[in-house]
Amino acid sequence: MSPAPSNLLEQVSLVLQPNASVSNSEKIAVLQAFAATMTASLSFERATEILQAVPLGLFYYGFSVEDDQLTTIATTSAGLSFLEKANLLGTITTVLDNPDDFDVVVQLVKCAVLKFMGNLGENEQIPFEAMSNKYKIMEKIEKCLETQNIEILIVAISTIGLVGSHPTGLKLLSDSLLTTFFSRYETAVGQVKAVYLQSISKMISVRDGTEQVEISTMNIYERIQGRPSTLLSLIKEAKQPEDSVRVASFAVMQAIAYHAWGVQLMAQSNEFMNYILNRSTEYTEQGQSWKYAIIQTLASAPDASRVLNEHYAQLQVYVRQGAHFKILEPAAAVENS
């Protein structure tokens, strides 16, 4: 016999305690079971009862755990109904307005809320646009991009990438937000640069065959404003010693190659084509695999032979040879004494 809802509520409270020695899988199971008990017609009294047993702070803690499945409680119609009726969404998003970013508690809670919003925004089945309009979520996230707290900044950048990782979310990225987003890109280094590139790759990767998405993704590309050109700036990042930056820069190149406008830009850059086709520029297996994936994408693009001109044959040879092909050098002649 399954436990009564009140028992489940006690279990939720227990597993979300900061000092609880409970595995993520157990937390997920309890939250899933609890979410299943909530109906779309959740009463205000029931919502109040839940919040009395499980204070808002415990929900914050649960959201802060880096496991997407812990947001299950908010990714069902019943879960969203609960969050709405208990005014949890309004209360949660208000946290992002707190200006005291260097207070440890504020930092932790803001990061938790941003991650939670990113998980919601990434899910195409959730009416995130309506939620954002009601609670001014995107405006609040934009404000977080102006913080001097690196931890909050990193999570805010990542959240933008998650929200903009599909066509519906891409429409939520206003001109103002994107201007703020890219304002610190050029001077970013290390982990911040890597997260920027990861988010940019998510946004540029979006495609659905419509002209609007092609325009939006190209607009994001143009906002990078790399020097001396965006493609060459990505090559520079791909040569950095930090793996996270290198991999993320390859991901952006791959995202660009998904689009007709991207293939044209790459084909028009001899410097880029020489780099991507030159096997001697990458010695790691991971980097070689990324370059191979980019070349495969270019070679399989519609009308590739015409757009890529003389490079097309080279791309085909590269694909046939494989990702880790090595050019054998003749052994040095040894004179017999």
Task: Compile the SSE list and pairings.
Layout (H helix, E strand, L loop, with lengths): L4 H11 L8 H13 L7 H10 L2 H9 L12 H9 L2 H7 L9 H19 L5 H8 L1 H8 L5 H14 L3 H4 L4 H8 L7 H15 L6 H14 L5 H9 L4 H15 L2 H8 L2 H8 L7 H15 L4 H5 L2 H11 L16
Helix pairs in contact: 1-2, 4-7, 7-10, 10-13, 13-16, 15-16, 16-19, 19-21
What does this structure look like?
- With 337 residues, the protein is mainly α.
- The longest helix has 19 residues, at 104-122.
- It has 21 helices and no strands.
- Mean pLDDT is 85; it is low at 1-5 and 332-337.
- It is 65% helix and 0% strand.
- It has a domain at 185-323: Leucine-rich Repeat Variant (Alpha Horseshoe).
- Helix 1 runs antiparallel to helix 2, helix 4 (56-64) packs across helix 7 (104-122) and helix 7 (104-122) packs parallel to helix 10 (150-163).
- This is 26S proteasome non-ATPase regulatory subunit 5.
- InterPro entries: ARM-type_fold, PSMD5.
- It comes from Parasitella parasitica.
Q: Could you tell me the number of beta strands?
A: 0
CATH top level label of the domain at 185-323? Mainly Alpha
Q: What structural class should be given to the helix and strand makeup?
A: mainly alpha
Q: Biggest sheet: strands, sense, closure?
A: none
SSE order in H/E notation?
HHHHHHHHHHHHHHHHHHHHH
Instruction: Indicate the overall shape.
Output: elongated
Indicate the CATH architecture of the domain at 185-323: Alpha Horseshoe
Question: What level of helicity do the residues show?
Answer: 55-70%
- Runs in which pLDDT lies below 50 for 5 or more consecutive residues are 1-5, 332-337
CATH topology group of the domain at 185-323: Leucine-rich Repeat Variant
- Calculate Rg over CA atoms: 24 Å
Q: Give the DSSP E fraction (strand runs of 2 or more residues).
A: under 5%
Mean pLDDT: 85
